[in-house]
Specification:
The protein contains 1 helix and 8 strands; from the N terminus they run H-E-E-E-E-E-E-E-E. The chain is mainly β and about 140 residues long. It has a 4-stranded antiparallel sheet with strand order 1-3-6-5, with no helix packed on it. The chain has a 4-stranded mixed sheet with strand order 2-8-7-4, with no helix packed on it.
Length: about 140
């Protein structure tokens, strides 16, 4: 009897997981390329619900204040997709960057998904140029 109960519990649990909400991103890494110093870059990805119940994105946290994710406010219905926009604003630091956005949702198998953006911020054109080193005089 105990074995029969356990088998029933596993079957019901497995069935309920098959009737769950799942999240799929159109891309998990985006290269924004070269960005002008003081500029801004925006990318949009598709968030798809591959499950059978509505997918709700509760929040998206960026690894820094220069990266701002904008997530869908409404639940994403089964089989449907919605846009998620990520805006990166350059700050006072030229050079390569690699930022992450952690997406939290009610998805059963992956409630947290990580999305990455990277690129290169150009040098500040208004930055003072370094003075050339003085030539040493040999006698």
């Amino acid at each position: 009897m105990k074995k029969l109960f356990m088998i029933g519990a596993f079957l019901i649990g497995g069935f309920s997981l098959s009737l769950a909400q799942e999240i799929e991103l159109s891309e998990s890494n985006v290269d924004l390329g070269n960005i002008a110093y003081g500029g801004k870059a925006v990318t949009t990805i598709q968030v798809k619900n591959t499950g059978t119940k509505p997918l709700v994105i509760s929040k998206a946290d960026a690894s820094c204040g220069c990266t701002v994710p904008k997530v869908p406010k409404d639940p994403i219905m089964p089989g449907k997709s919605a846009d998620m926009t990520i805006e990166y604003t350059t700050t006072t630091k030229p050079g390569a960057f690699n930022k992450t956005v952690t997406i939290n949702s009610n998805a059963i198998t992956e409630g947290r998904k990580i999305f990455r953006i990277k690129g290169v911020v150009a040098d500040n054109p208004n930055a003072p140029k370094a003075a050339p080193a003085a030539a040493s005089v040999k006698k």
